[in-house]
């Protein structure tokens, strides 16, 4: 919790207010008990002056006590919201700052669970239990001291059962943390499954996987429910024991206190004040198990959040270099890389000169997309050397490096906002002329104009109101608006219909003129005019040359090209 408080904005005023209100609550609680004692005794002695005086004091004390409680609520609420805000903001910032290789290993549902379910549990504890966990023991302590002042013998006898209360709390409260962690883990699993279902709903429906997903989710819900029931049972047993035990001091007080009052050793006012303060001693302690259980559960949630926050950020050091005079934009030397134990690239070397279009071709799994991830600094655990714009990639500030590169991925992602915002988010202060020029080059301007609100038409989630070809052209326009020195293009024409493919191909032809580009080609017809083609097979460059040279070699590229050409000619592609 100290680590958490250290991350908060300056809230000294609210900490001070909470502390002052706590002190006020303790003082006015004792003052009410004392006023009540004198009020009752003076009324029995028919001392009207004292009665009205202490009645007024009692009313004023109640008002000040209410103000202190209101101040507590305000300050604790502000602190709780500040903590929740800070954790949510830092959690989101952490996700944005993590290196890509860590994000690839995370399930988005688990990350969402940490920033929703776990954070909600922490927030509830801070709002409802944290202050009570501090204030109630202090209230019990000052009440205990005042009870000793009233009648130390009655106090000692009345609270003799409290050690039993504490031992019960400790013994029965231990399993709560374990079950709370298990329940949070199950909630995370449920989030993962929900994310999978929503993300792949078209596949689920197309392959009739509804029953499979329903059964999987139902089992997770049932497991989570069982964990929740077990947790509720543990808390119920704990609270029933503690509440039952907490009533024993009252039984003793009514019996022995009544006897002492009859004998004259205790006044009726003292007995009533004693019972009032005994309530402030026993019930706060009886509620401690519940507060403690909430504390343990929230600490499990906080631990999961900190597991995320403590992940190492993507490196932010490095320099920004002027790339205008660089003649070689990419140079890879003896590059070897693999995911975990799976080797992907083996001793790879190639260059990309300024103004060149270099194509990467090869079968699925040959390492084409991995090269893009390495060139943009997404992965760093490689062997060999990568120079970007004639500087070692390790010496680059990655944000500055990426500002010189635009990437168009095979899976186009559009944000659920307007077309204009989707395109211009990569270009600060971009003009309308620049926007239209980029869209025109990408062969997207005409279809954008036909939208209900043109460039201000809202894109649906995942771009579902646009075809694959339209999304590709929007992605190309977005990349062009950045005016990159290097364009990394993973073309996806293989998944498009003939008309869309032709439109995207025209956009690609426009883009590649005069630019420096590396293109991952899925249809070899799209890279016939590339300056050089690198043919990858099992992580190695097995052939290199232009289209004509590679066909004449009658090697791997020749076979790939004719296999693809023949299949399309036969209407299979």
UniProtKB/TrEMBL annotation:
SMART domains: AAA. Its main location: membrane. The keyword Nucleotide-binding applies. One of its GO terms (cellular component) is plasma membrane. It comes from the Bacteria. Residues 16-297 form the ABC transmembrane type-1 domain. One of its GO terms (molecular function) is ATP binding. The chain crosses the membrane at residues 12-31, 51-69, 130-149, 155-173, 236-260. It is a multi-pass membrane protein. Pfam families: ABC_membrane (PF00664), ABC_tran (PF00005). Gene3D superfamilies: ABC transporter type 1, transmembrane domain, P-loop containing nucleotide triphosphate hydrolases. This is ABC transporter ATP-binding protein.
């Amino acid at each position: 919790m100290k680590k958490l408080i250290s991350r908060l904005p300056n809230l000294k005023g609210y900490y001070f207010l909470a502390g002052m209100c706590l002190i006020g609550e303790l003082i006015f609680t004792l003052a009410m008990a004392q006023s009540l004692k004198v009020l009752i005794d003076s009324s029995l002695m028919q001392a009207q002056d004292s009665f009205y005086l202490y009645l007024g004091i009692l009313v004023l004390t109640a008002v000040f006590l209410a103000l202190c409680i209101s101040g507590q609520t305000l300050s604790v609420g502000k602190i709780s919201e500040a903590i929740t805000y800070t954790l949510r903001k830092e959690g989101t910032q952490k996700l944005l700052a993590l290196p890509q290789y860590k994000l690839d290993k995370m399930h988005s549902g688990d990350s969402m669970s940490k920033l929703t379910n776990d954070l909600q549990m922490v927030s509830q504890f801070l709002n409802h239990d944290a202050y009570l966990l501090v204030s109630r023991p202090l209230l019990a302590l000052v009440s205990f001291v005042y009870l000793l002042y009233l009648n130390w013998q009655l106090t000692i006898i009345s609270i003799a059962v409290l050690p039993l209360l504490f031992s019960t709390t400790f013994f029965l409260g231990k399993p709560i943390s374990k079950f709370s962690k298990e329940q949070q883990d199950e909630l995370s699993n449920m989030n993962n499954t929900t994310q999978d279902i929503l993300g792949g709903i078209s596949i689920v429906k197309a392959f009739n996987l509804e029953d499979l997903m329903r059964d999987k989710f139902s089992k997770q819900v049932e497991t989570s429910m069982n964990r929740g029931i077990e947790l509720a049972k543990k808390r119920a047993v704990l609270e029933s024991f503690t509440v039952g035990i907490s009533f024993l001091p009252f039984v003793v007080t009514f019996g022995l206190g009544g006897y002492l009052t009859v004998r004259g050793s205790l006044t009726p006012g003292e007995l009533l004040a004693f019972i009032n303060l005994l309530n402030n001693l026993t019930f706060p302690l009886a509620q401690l198990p519940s507060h403690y259980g909430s504390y343990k559960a929230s600490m499990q949630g906080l631990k999961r959040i900190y597991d995320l926050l403590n992940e190492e950020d993507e490196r932010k050091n490095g320099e920004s270099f002027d790339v205008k005079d660089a003649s070689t934009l990419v140079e890879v030397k003896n590059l070897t890389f693999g995911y975990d134990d799976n080797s992907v690239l083996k001793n790879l070397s190639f260059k990309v000169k300024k103004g060149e279009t270099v194509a990467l071709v090869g079968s699925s799994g040959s390492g084409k997309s991995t090269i893009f991830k390495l060139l943009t600094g997404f992965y760093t655990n490689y062997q060999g050397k990568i120079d970007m714009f004639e500087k070692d990639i390790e010496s680059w500030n990655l944000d500055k490096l990426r500002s010189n590169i635009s990437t168009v991925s095979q899976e186009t992602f559009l944000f659920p906002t307007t077309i204009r915002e989707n395109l211009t988010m990569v270009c600060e202060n971009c003009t309308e002329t620049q926007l239209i020029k980029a869209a025109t080059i990408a062969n997207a301007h005409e279809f954008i104009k036909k939208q209900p609100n043109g460039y201000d038409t809202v894109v649906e989630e995942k771009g579902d109101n646009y075809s694959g070809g339209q999304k590709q052209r929007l992605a190309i326009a977005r990349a062009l608006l950045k005016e990159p020195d290097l364009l990394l293009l993973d073309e996806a024409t293989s998944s498009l219909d003939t008309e869309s493919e032709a439109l995207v191909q025209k956009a690609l032809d426009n883009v590649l003129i005069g630019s420096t580009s590396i293109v991952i080609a899925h249809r070899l017809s799209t890279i016939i005019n590339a300056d050089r083609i690198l043919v990858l097979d099992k992580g190695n460059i097995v052939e290199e040359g232009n289209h004509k040279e590679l066909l004449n070699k009658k090697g791997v590229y020749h076979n790939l090209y004719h296999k693809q050409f023949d299949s399309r000619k036969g209407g299979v592609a």
